[in-house]
Structure formats: C-alpha cells, structure tokens
C-alpha cells in the first residue's frame, strides 16, 4: 500500500496515543485522579508560568506589529495571498474557536454570573464581572497564543521554505538537526497534542448535539447508541471535506458557517434585548480596555476566595488554548502565505477578538437579562449544564424550534470544519508536509478519531484525556518561548539581508552624457523601443560581462527564453542561491494630466514601457532605462559584490543556505 507517512513520526505517535487512550478506557477513574492531581499541582504552584508566557506572547506580537519587522512577508517578497480576506478569516476563525463559541456563548457568562466567587456582590457587578472575564478569556490573550505558533510556522515555511512542521521553528537553533530525531520528537508531540485535542472536542461536541436533538424530540434519549450514530455522521463528513482539500471542502464549509453564524447573531441581537445588549457591549468593551493590564498580570494571590475560580477558569483556559495551539497554529500557517507579519498579527489578534466580544455580549448578556426578567433565575440554575443551556436560552426567543435546528446545524458544521482541518493537519505532520497523500490516510485518521472518542465516551475516560491534554500545555508554553527566540533571531538576519546597502565603491551616474539623459527623462517609450534597449544595450552588456566572468574562472550564463523583452545573467553557487540580475519590460499607465501637459513633449499613448531590473532574491528592482552599457555592467558588479559580501558573512549562513538551489 502506497503511503507518505514517516515511520519516525507515525509509529511513536500511535504507540503513545493508543497507550494513553487504552489506559483511560480501562482505568478511567484511577487515570483521571492521577492526572487531576498532576494538573492541580501545576495550576496551583506553576500558574505563574502560564501568566508570564501569555503576557510575553502578547507583548512580543504588539512589538512586531509596530516594528519594521511587520513589513516582512510570509513568503518571498513578491508573494501574493492564496485566499481572499473573507475566506482566510472564515477558515482561521472556524478552526480556532468556532465550536467553542456555540458551547460557551451562553454557558460561560452565565457560569461566571452564578459563580460563588462573585456571589457576594450586587447582581450588576456580577453581570459586569461575567462579561469582563469572558472577554478576557476569549480575547487578545487567547488569540495571541495561536498567533505565536501560526506566525512562527508560516514564517519558516514560506520564508525559509522549510516543511510546515513545528520542527521548522527550531531551525535557527538546531540547524539541520531538525531533520533527525530531535525533529521527529517535536512532530510526535505536535501530532499527539492535536489528536487528543480533537478527540476530546469530538466527544464533548457529540454530547451537546445529542442534548439538542433530545430537547427538540428528534431522538428520544441521550444515549451511547445515538452518540455512535452522530459520531459516524460527523466524522464521515469531516473525512469527505478533508479529502477534498483546503481549497474546496474546508474553505466552502468555513464560508457557509461564518455567514450562518452572523445571521444567527443578528437574529438574537434584534429579537432579544437589543438596547441592553448594545449598551452592555459598549460598557464592557471600555471595562476590558481599562482593566487590560490588571487582568493580564492578576494572579489573585491577595483574593483567596477567588483562587479556586482562577485555577478552574483563567489558568485552565490558558492551558487549553496552548494545548490547542499546535493544531490551530499549523492550520492558520497553512492558509496565510503571502500576508505580511503586520497583516497577519492584526487580523489574527484584533478581528476574531472583536467578533468574540460581540458574540459573547449578544448571547451571554441576553441570557443574563432573560434570567433577571422572564426566566426568573431558571437559566442560572442550568449554569452547570452547558450542554443544554444554549437550547434552553433559545426558549425565550421567537421561532425557538427553527432556531434550535439552525444552532445544531451550525454546531455540526463548526465541528466538521474543526475536525477536517485537524485531520488535514495531522496527516501533514505525519508526512512532513508531503504534497500529495493517498486518500486512505485521511480515512485512517477519521476512523481512529471516531473509534477512540467513542471508546473514551463510553468508558468515561474522556475527562482523563482532556486533563492529559491540559498537562502537556506546560512544557509547550516553554517551547513557545523558544519559538519567539528562534523567530526573532531569524527576523534580525532577514532584515539585515534585505536592508544591506551597497558598498561605497558603487559607481553613481556621471554628468558626461547629461544631455542624452535629459532627453530620455522627458520622453516616454513604447514596447519596441524597450525591446531594442534590452536586446542591444542590456544583452550586449551581459554578454561582455559573462565572457569576463568566464575568463576569471567563474561560470556564468545568459537566460533569454527567446523573449525580446527579457534577459538575465546567472552565476551558479553550490551552497547558496544562484546570483541573478535580470532586466524585463514593464508597463505603466500615464496620468491624463501629464498627457495634456503643454510643457512636455507630445505623448501619443496612455501607456509607457520601461526596462526594470530584478534580482534572484526577490528584492524590489528599479528602472534602468537611463543606464549605458558600462553603467549596467557596473550595476551588476556592485550587486554581485553585495552578494559575495553577504554569503561570506557566517552570520547569514542560516538564511541563505536553507534555500540552496530553490528558486
């Protein structure tokens, strides 16, 4: 059977996944107690690691956004985004938090509102705290976790042309060792973390869908039999979507889902307590901004009564987002080629955060308002049952049955978009991002997910697996700090490479032929004129230069491709990118005001052509139409001198050698 799976990754991963899963199935209570003890020790004694890690992530991303590094593209300098902005946002949002919003949109604000940690306060303060902490847990800090992993992966994958794998983020530190056992160990960790996260989400998502169908009397009970059927349907859809690829299934489902979610959001907003929701959102946003730094650094050490709540919510959330970040980060990186670092950070941090705030305000604050007025406390009594709470909340809105079915449909699509992208990512990790994998591998991951989720659900071992996932977040938080160090080291080299100036020996224009240059400046060329310049002046200069390189023992060649509007000189180097200096015809439209300007020579056409230089490393070129043959030769030589100076600098070895022979 043909396979692209890598033995060094797949076998250790399967042994660990099956081992942990079967221990959780056969010894669920013992396993859960043991893992809970470990988790509790970490949350109580090492919670400061989570606090400082997440804080560092936020500060680092804000720094990159406003620094010169923000202009660097995730790919070559001439890279273009593969997806429209809407599709890009839809996919990263659906993969990142979609199903969580459906599960916690009503449940989390209501649970904070009903929590004993805030029970002593007036209901107004409890409502404000519920919104504030919900914003905190679903805001910039959460998305910063995903953004650090996604940015690191996208940068090293598309800028350095390394595999889309967590091992690639260690390249500046480990160099070629990432291709050995160290790299395999990193990918095994990422694969297991992704698998456990999706498995637990599948299990809990199935329970919510089952509860919703029971409330709507579609099925008679919340039983394991119906859960098996639901899992079979969901996983089948996920596998089908994953097999069709990112450009089809995942993209289409994500677009459909985000439109459905917006329609549901508007329905609840305008048919619920509209004025209350808008006013509370406005006040809540201001409260969040004012409290941002105190929330960020707050460890509740002086508030003993709220410490248990702090461990069970804030620390658990940071651990949960971190444990999910390998999967979400990989998927976000996959769809982000061609974006600048600044665009990536702003889009990943700000837009989903704002949408989350609107969503939580519309659903959470509406639920609190209904609980205070119409429901008379009935919703707060269900706070501990989040599986049913969303559907009971809908009882207080018009068209309850219809909207409940819509909610179930959205949950299903959200789950499918999470699972199909998860299957895609797991296969990518296990194959070291092989370009084409047989379809049976996608089916294999889907069946494995379904089988283990059902086993754990039936045996009661799902919570143990969830706890195991949360525990792995601690070492991965430290690994993410290393990502930042590695990324920063690479960015410094990257910027120095592209911003390095020419040496002082560069030859500027002379005034010898200034009359000819003036005539060229005020004239506009057509395509034949540019082709004539390239064929006679540029090609002649490159030919003479190539011969002289050959005389000095340097192999050089001319590339023309039988195109009269393009020519380049190329010098091959064995351990780095080839040196390339080319000239190609470009066009631009002339302003109508210039065409009509009486103080310029007559212009017959609205478009002018000019010869533009380009380089092998995708730096921005420039117009060379005013260069003489000797000046062109001089210009090539100064670029070649710059090239040799860069490759001879040991500090740049990492950046240039990774792309050897890849153009």
TrEMBL record:
Segments passing through the bilayer: 9-27, 47-66, 86-106, 135-158, 185-204, 224-246, 258-279, 315-333, 345-370, 396-419, 440-462, 468-492
Q: How does it sit in the membrane?
A: Multi-pass membrane protein
**Where does this chain mainly localize?**
membrane
Where is it located? Cell membrane
Q: Which residues form the signal peptide?
A: none
InterPro entries, sorted: BCCT_CS (IPR018093), BCCT_transptr (IPR000060)
Q: Which UniProt keywords apply?
A: Cell membrane, Membrane, Transmembrane, Transmembrane helix, Transport
- Per its UniProt record, what Pfam families does this chain match? BCCT
Name the family the entry cites.
Belongs to the BCCT transporter (TC 2.A.15) family.
Instruction: Identify the PANTHER family for this entry.
Output: HIGH-AFFINITY CHOLINE TRANSPORT PROTEIN, HIGH-AFFINITY CHOLINE TRANSPORT PROTEIN-RELATED
Its name, as the record gives it, is: Choline/glycine/proline betaine transport protein
From which lineage does this chain's organism come?
Answer: Bacteria, Pseudomonadati, Bacteroidota, Flavobacteriia, Flavobacteriales
């Amino acid at each position: 059977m043909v396979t692209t799976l890598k033995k060094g990754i797949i076998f250790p991963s399967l042994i660990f996944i099956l081992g942990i899963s079967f221990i959780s199935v056969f010894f669920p209570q013992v396993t859960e107690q043991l893992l809970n003890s470990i988790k509790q020790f970490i949350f109580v004694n090492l919670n400061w690691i989570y606090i400082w890690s997440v804080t560092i992530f936020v500060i680092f991303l804000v720094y990159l956004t406003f620094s010169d590094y923000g202009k660097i593209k995730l790919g070559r300098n001439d890279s273009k985004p593969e997806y429209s902005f809407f599709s890009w946002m839809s996919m990263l949002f659906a993969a990142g938090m979609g199903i969580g919003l459906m599960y916690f949109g009503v449940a989390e604000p209501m649970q904070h509102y009903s929590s004993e940690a805030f029970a002593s306060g007036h209901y107004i303060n409890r409502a404000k705290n519920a919104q504030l902490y919900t914003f905190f847990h679903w805001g910039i800090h959460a998305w910063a976790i995903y953004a650090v992993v996604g940015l690191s992966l996208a940068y090293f994958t598309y800028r350095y042309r390394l595999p889309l794998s967590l091992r690639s983020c260690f390249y500046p530190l480990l160099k070629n060792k990432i291709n050995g056992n160290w790299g395999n160990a990193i990918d095994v960790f990422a694969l297991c973390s992704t698998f456990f996260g999706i498995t637990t989400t599948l299990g809990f998502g199935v329970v919510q869908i089952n509860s919703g169908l029971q409330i709507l009397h579609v099925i008679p009970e919340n039983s394991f039999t119906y859960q098996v059927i639901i899992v079979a349907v969901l996983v089948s859809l996920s596998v089908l979507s994953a097999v069709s690829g990112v450009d089809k299934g995942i993209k289409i489902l994500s677009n459909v889902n985000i439109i459905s979610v917006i329609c549901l959001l508007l329905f609840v907003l305008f048919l619920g307590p509209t004025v209350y929701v808008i006013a509370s959102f406005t006040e809540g946003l201001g409260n969040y901004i004012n409290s941002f730094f105190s929330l960020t650094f707050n460890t509740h050490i002086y508030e003993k009564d709220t410490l248990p709540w702090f461990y069970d919510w804030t620390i658990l959330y940071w651990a949960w987002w971190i444990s999910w970040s390998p999967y979400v980060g990989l998927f976000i990186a996959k769809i982000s080629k061609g974006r600048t670092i600044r665009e990536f950070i702003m889009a990943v941090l700000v837009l989903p955060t704002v949408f989350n705030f609107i969503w939580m305000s519309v659903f959470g604050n509406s639920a609190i308002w209904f609980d205070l007025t119409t429901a008379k406390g009935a919703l707060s009594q269900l706070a501990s049952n989040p599986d049913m709470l969303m559907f009971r909340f809908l009882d207080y809105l018009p068209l309850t049955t219809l909207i409940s079915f819509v909610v179930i449909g959205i949950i299903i699509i959200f789950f499918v978009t999470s699972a199909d992208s998860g299957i895609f990512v797991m296969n990518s990790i296990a194959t070291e991002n092989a370009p084409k994998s047989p379809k049976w591998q996608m089916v294999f991951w889907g069946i494995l997910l379904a089988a283990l989720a059902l086993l754990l659900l039936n045996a009661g071992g799902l919570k143990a697996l969830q706890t195991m996932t949360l525990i792995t977040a601690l070492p991965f938080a430290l690994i993410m700090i290393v990502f930042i160090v590695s990324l920063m080291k690479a960015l410094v080299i990257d910027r120095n490479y592209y911003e390095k100036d020419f040496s002082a020996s560069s030859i500027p224009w002379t005034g010898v032929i200034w009359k000819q240059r003036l005539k060229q400046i005020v004239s506009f060329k057509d395509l034949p004129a540019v082709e004539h310049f390239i064929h006679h002046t540029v090609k002649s200069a490159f030919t003479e230069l190539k011969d002289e390189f050959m005389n000095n023992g340097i192999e050089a060649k001319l590339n023309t491709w039988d195109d009269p509007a393009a020519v380049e000189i190329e010098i091959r180097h064995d351990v780095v990118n080839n040196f390339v200096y080319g000239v190609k015809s470009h066009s631009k439209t002339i302003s109508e005001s210039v065409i009509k300007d009486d103080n310029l020579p007559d212009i017959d056409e609205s478009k002018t052509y000019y010869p533009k230089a380009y380089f092998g490393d995708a730096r921005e070129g420039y117009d060379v139409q005013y260069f003489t043959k000797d000046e062109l030769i001089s210009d090539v030589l100064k670029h070649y001198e710059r090239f040799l100076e860069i490759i001879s600098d040991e500090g740049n070895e990492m950046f240039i050698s990774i792309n050897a022979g890849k153009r």
